[in-house]
Write a structure and sequence with these properties.
Blueprint lengths: L1 E6 L5 H8 L5 H9 L3 H22 L8 E3 L5 E3 L6 E7 L2 E7 L17 H5 L2 H8 L6 H18 L19
Antiparallel strand pairs: 1-5, 2-3, 4-5
Helix pairs in contact: 1-3
Length: 175
């Protein structure tokens, strides 16, 4: 798996979007103009360009060869290429794109203050007990770690957020 990433600066978002939007596939250009916030437009643009770049680097695919189709849950695939997969994630200033020959998912999140009610959404019963038994020193970082693992997993399955994270068990056996 190869992972490509970019750190965005939003202060020249208008100029960057204008300069590169024609490199987007037609469907993405339509989606771009529907987004209201410039930050969201820049994230979409960066994700698509990272995907195009990564697919060219890893598989030699030119953007004009790419026909993106979506499964029932909205996961994008490249039509006609059985062993060529990608997945994109963004959070605040970061955008990443993973490219591989196998299905996979990627997720990034900026670690910041989080509402403790999120524990109920992210954790299953066993994990919930661990959090409340005070056996975790940096619960926020651990919660974000669990969140990104679970979201990457569901994205890899092609199911996105359709599977409640509380139904996923992360086995953390020590080696």
């Amino acid at each position: 798996m190869e992972i490509y990433g970019i750190y965005l600066s939003f202060h020249k978002a208008d100029e960057i979007i204008e300069k590169y939007k024609e490199q987007l596939m037609p469907a993405k250009r339509k989606r771009l103009v529907r987004l209201r916030k410039k930050e969201d437009q820049l994230r979409l643009l960066a994700g698509d360009l990272l995907m195009q770049y990564g697919l060219y680097q890893e598989f030699g695919l030119e953007p004009k060869q790419l026909e993106i189709v979506y499964n029932t849950y909205g996961k994008p695939y490249i039509s006609g290429y059985k062993y060529c997969y990608f997945n994109i994630s963004h959070s605040h200033e970061w955008v990443v794109c993973a490219i591989d020959k196998s299905e996979m998912g990627i997720d990034i999140e900026k670690v910041e203050e989080i509402d403790l009610d999120m524990i109920k959404i992210i954790c299953n019963q066993e994990e919930y007990k661990i959090f409340y038994s005070k056996r975790i020193s940096n619960y926020q970082a651990k919660l974000y770690e669990m969140w990104t693992i679970k979201e990457s997993y569901t994205k890899g399955l092609g199911r996105g957020l359709s599977i409640p994270f509380s139904q996923i068990n992360i086995n953390e056996k020590k080696k």
